[in-house]
Structures are given as structure tokens and as C-alpha cells.
Amino acid sequence: MNIAVLTGAGISAESGLKTFRDSNGLWEGHDVMEVATPEGFERNPDLVLDFYNQRRKQLLEVRPNEAHKAIADLEKDHNVSVITQNVDDLHERAGSSKVVHLHGELLKVRSTGDRNDIIEWRTDLIVGDYCENKHQLRPHIVWFGEEVPMMEVAISIVEKADVIIIVGTSMQVYPAAGLIQYASEVAQLYFVDPNPSLHTSERILVFSEKATTGIPKVVAHLNMLN
Ligand code: APR
To answer: Where is the Deacetylase sirtuin-type domain (predicted)?
Structure first.
């Protein structure tokens, strides 16, 4: 089967990474408009780069959890594509081989001059770190107000999916939240989230629980379908 897995911050919560919308609009103590917009970066590049340096450090200290692993294991029997809103690399570290990052990747940086000039970078980034063409480097992250270049790829994965599993997302941020509109009419949909924004219907089976317990239930249900 073709399986598309759409994940948000909730899948990494049990690895120790905080979700976005459970802390009064603040993100590690910062207004998102300060640290996750191009305008914020222009106003205070030191603050923004330091914010991502801290997040990178935190990411390197955590590990994938059982939910990431269960999703990677689905590849033994199915053609699985993960579409994630997360900028962490926990799906890859768990063993998923096809991961589309809608909102960029924390462990990569790129030139502010040319968005295709992407470099792997695992340490700190500071003001004055330039690309070969002398442009400041920035995190390879899609900030609010910026284009989501991977959307086309994500849409085509969703259109072809027989099964769509949505995990740990508040479904509030577009265009990612609109992806399920592209699901085929016969696709089986699952949603795992302790505080789900969708209800069980003919189309979608909702498990109101954490990813590490909910994903194994989805897998058990899938095995029954086979
Ligand atoms: N397992 C599964 N889901 C969980 C868990 C868990 N252990 N803990 C929390 N959740 C759920 C919450 O109930 C919530 O629905 O994860 C969801 C997290 O929602 P958000 O914080 O809004 O994260 P997300 O949907 O990924 O946000 C989308 O917004 O800030 C931007 O670019 C950022 O990619 C992010 C986007």
C-alpha cells in the first residue's frame, strides 16, 4: 500500500521537544514573530541565530521515540512517505527513508542570497558566517510568511496514498493543514493526537492519545485491513 504519514510537533513531544501551541504563543520564551519571520531576522539576527543554535543543541541531545520507530518499521511492508512539519531529523534517525520537510530542516543552513545553496551545518551559526558569495547564512527553515517549496511534492504523495496517517498536529498552520483535501475519496485516514482537532467519521478514524501508544493501534488496524 502507499502510505502517507503527516506529522507535526506532537510526534516529537515524547522525545522531549516542546510543541508550539501549548505555551501561550511563546516558543521557548520568544514570540514566534521575533524568531520565526524574515522581518524578525532582519531586526535582530543575533537573537534569531542564537535561538536556532539553542534548538540545534537541544535536538542533538534527544532521540527518536517509539512512534518515529513504528512509522519507520511500516517500510518493511509498505511504500511509506513521511511528510513532516517538523524541522527535527528524528524520522530520519528512526530509519524512515523518504521524508519531506515542509518547514525546512534545523540541521541545515543556507545562503540568504540563493535559497538553493544549502549546506549541512551541525554547529553554531553566527552573524558574519557567509556563503562563498559573501551572503550571510541563515537556518534552512520556512519562516512565517515564506513560501513552502515542498508543497507540490507533498500534494502528489497525498493524492497517491491509499492510507493517510496524521500524527501530533493542531492542523492550524496552512498550507500544511490543507493537505488532506488532496486525499483520494477511497483513502483510509487515521488521526493520532491526545487533543485531536478532527472527530471520527466515515472518512477518518481518530485515536485520542499520545503518538507512542496511538501509532501501534493504527498499525494493528492496518494489519486487519490487509
Ligand atoms: N503525541 C501526539 N500528539 C501530541 C502529543 C503526543 N505525545 N503531545 C501533544 N500532541 C499534539 C497536541 O495535542 C497538538 O494537537 O501535538 C499537536 C501540536 O500542535 P502544534 O504545537 O500546533 O504543532 P504543529 O501542528 O506541528 O504546528 C505546525 O506551526 O509553529 C509552526 O512551523 C511550526 O511546523 C510548525 C507549525
So the answer is: 1-225
CATH (one of 3.30.1600.10, 3.40.50.1970, 3.30.1330.10, 3.40.50.300) for 18-61+107-141: 3.30.1600.10
Evaluate: CB of 85 within 6 angstroms of ligand 1: yes
**Predicted complex: ipTM over 0.95:** yes
Q: What is the pLDDT of residues 52-108, one digit of tens each?
A: 999 999 999 999 999 999 999 999 999 999 999 999 999 999 999 999 999 999 999
- Which residue's alpha carbon is at the smallest distance from atom 35 of ligand 1? 85
**Cα–Cα dist 192/115, whole Å:** 34
Q: Tens digit of pLDDT for each residue in 1-37?
A: 999 999 999 999 999 998 887 666 677 788 889 999 9
Q: Is there a binding annotation on residue 24?
A: yes
What is the CATH superfamily name and number for domain 1-16+64-103+148-226?
A: TPP-binding domain (3.40.50.1220)
Strands 99-101 and 79-84: parallel
State the catalytic residues: 103
Cell, residue 98: 523518504
CA atoms within 13 A on the CB side of 124: 10
HSE at residue 96, side-chain half, CA atoms within 13 A, is: 30
Which atom belonging to ligand 1 lies closest to the Cα atom of 144?
32
